[in-house]
Write a structure and sequence with these properties.
The protein is mostly helical and about 70 residues long. Helix content is about 80%, strand content about 0%. The chain has one domain. The chain has helices at about 5-20, 25-35, 40-45, 45-50, 55-65. Helix 1 (about 5-20) packs across helix 3. It is globular.
Length: about 70
Amino acid sequence: MSSDQVVATWVFMVLSRLRRRLNLPTAEFAGLVLANGLVGFLYAHHELLHYYDDDAVCDDVMTYVVSGD
């Protein structure tokens, strides 16, 4: 598996867990992901974030969304 495939799989896993944590319908969650550029954020920060557990990564993503950075 290439490194891009590994990162893409990890991003998908994080987004799936975040959607379940927020308990949002898929369409509403997709809007949140697109509006906040979450795929790009996760991809750009994969090297750091993939070492943390799922709850910590979800917390970081929510901090990113709330801060608007």
